[in-house]
Amino acid sequence: MSDSTTRPSVVIVGAGFSGLIAARELESAGFDVRIVEARDRIGGRAWTDERLGGHTLEMGATWVHWMQPFVWTEITRYGQKIYPSPDIDDAYWVSGGIVHRGTEHDLDVALSRVQEKIFEGSREFFPNPHDPLALLSDADTDPSLRERFLRADTGSVLDCLREGEFSQMDIDLADSYWSAGYQGSTATASPLMAKHWAALSDHRSSLMDEQTLRFKLVDGMRGLYESIAGDLRADISLDTPVVRINHSPSAVEVELADGTIASADAVIVTAPIGALSQIHFEPPLADGQQKVISEGTNSTGFKIWVKVSGRHSIIAGAPGDNPISLLRSEYFLDDEDATILVGFGSDHNAIDLQDVASAQKAINVWSDDLTVLDCGGHDWVADKWSGQTWATLRSGQFFDGWSNFLSTDSRLRFAGADYARGWNGVVVDGAIESGIVTARALINEFVARSAV
């Protein structure tokens, strides 16, 4: 700001949910906003597209819920509607190379016991799950609780099952579930992230499943992110990557790939952790931030859509050393005598998302009666503008990871699902939360300064 009459200016890097929401907040406070987006579309890791013969499918974020407060507010604001994923008839799960079969209820009962063990401590550790590090900042926290809290970010998410009364089938069931949930190896997954998910779901595995795998938007994620963008005055420049950001306590310069320099009072970077290496920061980011970027998150997996012949109402799980860890029916195409299933796995290199033979081989783990007709997806890990799917946490990163990006000593700020306090890294709710919080903090900073 050159004087008290000049409106503050902010460049927002990224036109996903967090960037769009931050822009709306800033504009409502009178800021001048420009959004630059590396891709040729808005939405970020939420992308509603037409695949598998023209069917509308979500390449990234999909499920929403009324107990996710930030996204539900936007759903209500823009009059969006939801509908449920279908109920399932048959369940398959693999353990020790053997395929077991039952109902979805059978699978839920078998999982609930191991989930209870994995969630152990969630009530103590997260009395307010939207302030996940509160125990560390509270001087009254019992030292023994603090120690257990810190220790819960070590080891791997399945360690708690390897001693005691849990069978190999129990462990394999948990590995199937969490290989999909963490989008990466359970061997490197922070146990604390699963406990945080539990706290955000009233410590109930059934509610966690409902929040993360049950309800979809009638008009897709596209209906929501396009509605938010439609309320903006800001210019959204697509196909406009950022290559360098110079930042100081009073101003920023954002260099675009075409050599153009955008000068502003502040910049909000909403790129995922996996894409931050594409931007040169001057001065360099803090050591803790660079460490996280170098390590990457635990998210090395994929999401795939598979069309199979016939009607199949199934859910299937297999340990993470299989290409697909979790598979379930999503759409019944009666006019085509086909079913569209959605699958998740821990290693994006273990499958070719566009290759029918690769998908067929993966599905044959459960049954050779499922004939793959088509498949598709987007490899978010190989995409340099994301470098990951959702940002799940490696062991040690709950305390020394995403939170390193919550504060800076300059006009450079970070926002996005990767940096959220609530649904961190996982769902659109966290992206919206982070966009609001980051924008409001910047607004308050400028208000305080103008009052001096």
UniProtKB/TrEMBL annotation:
It comes from Gordonia rubripertincta (Rhodococcus corallinus). Residues 17-443 form the Amine oxidase domain. This is NAD(P)/FAD-dependent oxidoreductase. SUPFAM superfamilies: FAD/NAD(P)-binding domain (SSF51905). InterPro entries: Amino_oxidase (IPR002937), FAD/NAD-bd_sf (IPR036188), Flavin_monoamine_oxidase (IPR050281). PANTHER family: FLAVIN MONOAMINE OXIDASE, LYSINE-SPECIFIC HISTONE DEMETHYLASE 2.
